[in-house]
């Protein structure tokens, strides 16, 4: 999967991304609080290098951090800045590939790469390149936070789909009619990569409008990702699970080496 097609996937999703949540603002606050607790310092400089439409970046800005967001999708990055401004927050965003970050060495106190973004990179070489860039832009002892799906379990079970999420009338969604979201997963023979089809169905009166978007992931296991982080210059690497962090995915937490 090329960076162009991944960017296109999120360009197409940008306007509708918030509809995967029953209450996007509540998720922003909850995820920001959880990540803030892992950073463990007040008002630091943070790079969210896969900011999407701003779920984690806005959440951290609400906690008082000085956040910069980048994303492979220009459309998503623009929306993140716009959503932050709507909440009277300052969030500078830009389109950028996490394997080539447009920042000077040691600029940030923390780097976040959340919501299963890193596994869009499909080879060890690309993952290592991205982690090396995150290390480069971190100050010594700066904090790295990476979240992925629980791939050790998923590789074993190889699910074919996710459960449907239905949001709309009767919940906190900001759009009046119902939206249904689900995914189909098509696993490769290697057992590690899968193509994902992301379905969103939008109720329009008595009819439904359907959008389907496709992308590819690498089901990157925790030991393998931790090893790649160590090779890229990170230390004190550990995985923290949702039941201890309150974040919705497993979090790799590490520090940049001296």
**Mean pLDDT over the full residue set:** 95
Shape: globular
Give the beta-strand count. Answer: 11
Query: pLDDT under 50 segments (min length 5)?
Result: 170-175
**What's the tally of helices?**
8
Would you identify the CATH H-level superfamily of the largest domain?
Vaccinia Virus protein VP39
What is the annotated CATH architecture of the largest domain?
3-Layer(aba) Sandwich
Biggest pleated-sheet summary: 7 strands, mixed
> If you compute it from the alpha carbons, what radius of gyration comes out, rounded to the nearest whole angstrom?
18 Å
Identify the strand order in the major beta sheet.
3-2-1-4-5-11-10
Structural class label: alpha/beta
Q: Helical percent range?
A: 25-40%
Strand content: 25-35%
GO biological process, one term: methylation
Protein name: Class I SAM-dependent methyltransferase
Pfam families: Methyltransf_25 (PF13649)
GO molecular function, one term: methyltransferase activity
Name the descriptors.
single chain; 258 residues; alpha/beta; Rossmann fold; 2 domains; seven-stranded mixed β-sheet; four-stranded antiparallel β-sheet; 8 helices; 32% helix; globular
